[in-house]
Structures are given as structure tokens and as C-alpha cells.
Write a structure and sequence with these properties.
Radius of gyration: 22 Å
Strand content: 15-25%
Distance between the termini: 29 Å
Largest sheet: 5 strands, mixed
Strand order of the largest sheet: 1-2-5-4-3
Helix content: 25-40%
Number of helices: 15
Oligomer: single chain
Length: 476
């Protein structure tokens, strides 16, 4: 598959344009299927972003008469991107899997295919959700407007449909036409689960498009900010999971630890959740990373022992709950803690230049249940503290990372607390001509049915909390 893609016309560092016959050949190639990170399309082209080893590989092909051969004919996880692209652009994936139901357009938009050069009239009338049991946004336990519809048999979930229309904010449309610097404040607010991860992935994509390589000092500051965010989000997800199984004491200790980190940030003169710390060419002016890292380390390190002991007390309540099979984790490229706890050992931090790999030691059960996920979150918090220590001991250490050629197009990734965040950016005359965002939450949508099957509907909020699903980054 990789060989077929690289037989196409090279457009950018990792991007190849394929003629229709090459695109078809990629989708029918013998041998292993490369993991799909994301799929999307616009008026002109359809794209698939794949992972070859730990390196991105982007393939695109032309859209003719609003149609293209569906990547979901080979990549099951591409269906969501195909549906989103049809709702926004009106381009149809031929031979697609699934029922082709709208992903975002519930019938209430003022026009059909709003991003297309030829938008259609509004469909009119809200579409009813399929299924007989609904879980409204306020009932999911999530901090965002996702709605779930369930097919239930004898009181147990048999099938799940996710409705993300209310979560769609038109963010990508608002970013196109802006300079990267103008876009950064919006990117920094995509989701509270990625105030660092999203702008960092965006900044890396922009740097690649401009033919720049951030220096080791910038790189190390970015790494520390990302680890502080990782600790904070892990604590949030642990607290939410604990409350789902009535482990209120553990949840309270997680809340207190997270608040202590927020206070440490505030006392160092930065945002409690590290908003607006990452810039396209570095980080916020005046940020003193060494005292910030030391303060966070000082408040978190002594709390770990208590959290680990409380986890051991309550862990049995999470046994066998909301299991993700490793085959599904691999097939749909589920990342972050949810993927690693199921045996998919992918951590994009390991490919970063200057990473202190000796600090990334976290391993755990690969049973794929809530207990495995919580244990791994604790282990990764310990690793994050160790990584910060290593970076502070050699901050700004030089390396031989060369700057890429300037192609006005770039791909950036950041391993956020909930998984790998990807940005693809194409610039023209210094402004964003095209953009795609892949939040790790999107990879969870195809596996939710398998994880929730057999449970009562009232158990869904606890399961969603355990896997760290965040609606904000799914429907951009």
C-alpha cells in the first residue's frame, strides 16, 4: 500500500497525489492495511492520512462530478469522515460502507453543503434519530453536546448511533483565510482536553509548511507544557471514572490534585489550564518554564502515593467494564490511554526529536477494560513527572533535526492526554487555504457500539467517562 501511494506525484513532504487508477489500486492492494488516522474531502480532492510505522503518509485524489471512490471500502474508520465531507461539501463517497446517514446536518441548517462552491437549498425539518432510547447531552456526563440513540433488546444495548450535529461549530470554516497567527487563538480553544495539544499540533504543521524547525529550547518548553496538561486531564478522567462507580473518595483526591496543579500554574502567572501558552513560533512571551515545571512537580509528586493506594482499593469495581478489544483498537487506530490499555502500543511522543525516551516507561494491563485504563493513567502521570525532571536537567539540549523544505503544506501531531491530535495545513500567500483537524475522539466513534453492547443505558455515562470521550473535538 505504501509503495502504491509513493508511486503518485509528490506534493509535499509526506503527501502524494494519486490518479484514479492509483487510488483504486491503493484501496485494493494486497497485504496489510496501513492504519487510518483520518479521512476527509472537499470540492477538489479526497484525502486519507495513514500511519506507516510511526510516520504519517498522506494520499489524495481528485473529486470528479462531486464523487470519489470511498476509502471506507478498505478503511472501516473512514466512514465518519466521508459522512462529514458529504454534509459540508456535498461530495459523495462511492461504494461506501454504512447507511450514509448524515453526521452533522440534522436538517436545521440554512443551506445544504454549506462549504461547497455550489451549496444547495436548506433541507428543512429536523431529522429524527433512529433507535428507541435516547441519551440527551445533559444525560451523558460529558462536557459537550453529543446525543446518543440506542437499539435496545431485553433492556441491553444492541447498537449505538452518535449524533454530533449540535456539537458542530464550523471551526474549520472560520480558520480558512486567516494567517496562522490569527488562527491560533481559535485553535487554542478547540477543546478543554487539549489547550496545549491542539495548538501544538497546529504549530508543528505550520512550521513544516514554512520550512522551519523549532529550536531545542522551544521544543523542550512545548514538551513540558504538554506533560503538565497530560497530568491534569488524566486526573479529570480518573475522577469522572471513579464517580461512575461510586468511588467518591478517589474522585475527590483526583479533584484536589488537579486543583493544586491549577493553583501552581496561576501562581506562576499563567492560565490555570495553560490556555494561550503555545504560539506558532514558540510560546507566550514571559513564560518561565523552569519554575512552572518545578512548582507542578512539587505539588503532584507527594500525592501520587495516595492516588495509587486508593486506586488499588477501588480497582475491582472497574474489572471487565467497557472493554475495547485489541483488534478493534488496531483496526480503528484508537490512540491514547484507551488504545494503549487495549494493547495498541502507540505513543507519538516516541518519534519526537529530543524526547527523553528513558522516562517513558509506563506499561500496564492490556485487557482493555476501565481498570486497565485507570492504572495506565496513574503510570503515565508518574512518567510525566519523570520526563519533566529529565528535561529540566538538560533543557535546550541541541540535536541534529534538519529543517524541512518549504512546501506551504505541513502535517503536525501532538500526543495529547487522550490520544494523538493531528493537523494538516496548506498555506497560500501566508494564509490558511485549507485545513483538517483530527481529534482522538473521532477514532472512538466506530468502537463505541462494541464497548457498550450488552450494558443497560444508565451505564453509558460511566463508560464514556472511562474512555475519555470529549465531544468538543469531534465535529469541527
Amino acid at each position: 500500500m505504501g509503495r502504491i501511494i509513493r508511486s503518485g506525484e509528490r506534493v509535499a513532504l509526506s503527501h502524494y497525489y494519486l490518479e484514479p487508477a492509483q487510488w483504486s489500486g491503493m484501496l485494493t492492494a494486497s497485504g496489510a492495511t496501513l492504519p487510518l488516522i483520518s479521512c476527509w474531502a472537499d470540492d477538489a480532492r479526497a484525502y486519507v492520512l495513514l500511519l506507516e510505522g510511526d510516520c504519517p503518509l498522506l494520499a489524495s485524489t481528485g473529486v470528479e462530478d462531486r464523487r470519489y471512490l470511498a476509502p471506507s471500502s478498505r478503511f472501516a474508520g473512514a466512514e465518519w469522515g466521508e459522512r462529514v465531507s458529504y454534509d459540508l461539501w456535498g461530495v459523495e463517497a462511492m461504494d461506501a460502507r454504512g447507511n450514509g446517514a448524515p453526521a452533522l446536518d440534522e436538517g436545521g441548517w440554512t443551506s445544504t453543503w454549506p462549504l461547497s462552491s455550489r451549496p444547495g437549498p436548506a433541507a428543512g425539518g429536523l431529522r429524527p434519530l433512529a433507535g428507541h432510547h435516547l441519551l440527551r447531552p445533559e444525560q451523558t456526563g460529558l462536557s459537550g453536546p453529543l446525543e446518543f440513540s440506542f437499539e435496545v433488546l431485553k433492556g441491553k444495548i444492541r447498537d449505538v448511533e452518535v449524533c454530533a450535529g449540535a456539537a458542530h461549530r464550523g471551526l474549520v470554516a472560520r480558520l480558512v483565510g486567516k494567517t496562522p497567527e490569527e488562527a491560533m487563538p481559535l485553535v487554542s480553544r478547540v477543546t478543554a482536553g487539549g489547550f496545549v495539544a491542539h495548538p501544538l499540533a497546529f504549530a508543528r504543521a505550520v512550521a513544516q509548511a514554512r520550512g522551519l524547525a523549532p529550536g531545542p529550547g522551544i521544543r523542550d518548553v512545548w514538551m513540558i507544557l504538554l506533560e503538565i496538561e497530560r497530568i491534569s486531564i488524566h486526573l479529570f478522567d480518573m475522577a469522572r471514572t471513579a464517580r461512575g462507580v461510586d468511588a467518591e473518595l478517589l474522585a475527590t483526591h483526583c479533584d484536589h490534585a488537579r486543583e493544586a496543579i491549577s493553583r501552581a500554574c496561576s501562581e506562576q502567572g499563567v492560565s490555570r489550564r495553560l490556555m494561550d501558552m503555545v504560539a506558532c513560533d514558540g510560546f507566550r512571551e514571559g513564560l518561565e518554564i523552569v519554575p512552572l515545571a518545578q512548582a507542578v512537580h512539587a505539588v503532584m509528586q507527594p500525592r501520587l502515593v495516595v492516588l495509587e493506594e486508593l486506586h488499588r482499593v477501588f480497582a475491582a469495581r472497574l474489572n471487565g467494564f467497557a472493554v475495547l478489544d485489541v483488534r478493534l483498537a488496531e483496526r480503528f487506530a484508537v490512540g491514547g490511554v484507551t488504545g494503549r490499555a487495549s494493547g495498541r502500543s502507540m505513543d507519538m511522543r516516541r518519534r519526537e526529536a529530543g524526547m527523553r525516551l528513558e522516562a517513558l516507561r509506563a506499561t500496564g494491563s492490556s485487557r482493555g477494560d476501565a481498570r486497565a485504563r485507570e492504572g495506565l493513567r496513574l503510570a503515565e502521570i508518574r512518567d510525566s513527572l519523570a520526563l519533566m525532571e529529565r528535561i529540566l536537567g538538560s533543557i535546550g539540549l541541541e540535536d541534529d533535526e534538519p529543517a524541512p523544505d518549504r512546501t506551504e503544506e505541513g502535517i503536525g501531531v501532538a500526543e495529547g492526554a487522550r490520544g494523538d491530535v493531528w493537523y494538516w495545513v496548506r498555506l497560500k500567500d501566508g494564509r490558511i487555504e485549507s485545513l483538517h483537524v483530527r481529534d482522538p475522539g473521532a477514532s472512538l466513534l466506530p468502537v463505541l457500539g462494541a464497548m457498550l453492547r450488552g450494558y443497560a443505558v444508565d451505564r453509558v455515562p460511566a463508560a464514556l467517562g472511562s474512555i475519555g470521550l470529549s465531544p468538543a473535538g469531534i465535529a469541527l
